Amino acid sequence: MLAELLELAPGGVEEVNEPDGRAGVVEYAIYGAPGELPELGELQAVAGDALVEVRSEPLADNWEQRWKRFYQPLLVAGRVYVRPPWERPAERGGVAEVVIDPGRAFGTGTHATTAMCLELLVGAAPRAPRLLQRLVGRRRSFCDLGCGSGVLSIAAARLGFEPVLGVDFERAAVEESDRNARLNHLQLELRRVDLRREPAPVADLSAANLTTGLLKEVAQLWAEAGTRPGSLIASGFLAHEAGQVTEAMGAAGLRPRGSLERGEWGAMLLVA
Hints:
- By secondary structure, the protein is of the alpha/beta class.
- The protein is 31% helix and 22% strand.
- The chain has helices spanning 2-8, 40-46, 63-66, 112-124, 130-136, 151-158, 171-183, 212-225, 242-251; strands at 14-17, 26-29, 74-76, 80-83, 96-99, 142-145, 164-168, 189-192, 205-209, 231-238, 255-262, 265-271.
- α7 (171-183) links the parallel β7 and β8 (189-192).
- α4 (112-124) runs parallel beside α6 (151-158) and α8 (212-225) packs parallel to α9.
- It starts with a helix and ends with a strand.
């Protein structure tokens, strides 16, 4: 639904689950000046057979700033602090700060699937300082499959992974990741990759916050190529689909080591 709405209103769409406590309801908000928005009939058609209510209402002049209220700072496992640039920096020491400007169609890491990836990433992060890792020659590489806004890649770099590679099929996502990396004074390797047509790059630790179907395709291409990451953080699937992801990754030589659930979403750590 969100993807279809973005085609109609590429300027951005807000998604709110259970607004005002209404269970089972998803609300989408599209802002724009008169004449810029899709016709109400188009919006109803996008929802297909779902029960849909469409309404329009005038908003205050500062409507273009209202979306910012959906992005709040996120502290993950006491070690990573993710915030949009308009929020204050972390007030506690010893945390890796990640600043993410969501732009028009990318998140800041607060979605359940991304938050679970960050939690698993913290648990798998090197404990030794980066300089010591270099001295003893034990640097650990990281690859972010479907980098989006770059939050996982940037967090990995902050946590001591090196080198860090982020890939995405969407050119806009690669550009967004690069913009956010520079916002965090980092230079990451970022490039376009079609995960459906070629084996995904591998690293000591990879992260794949993708749909179940795409996770299965990634696993199949790894199995055919005889390659796989040392460990994998997988998310983006519904909790009841975890078995499908486990089976697919098993064919590539990866076995589950731990898992998380947030509402309807799941995430897992797999190891070779």
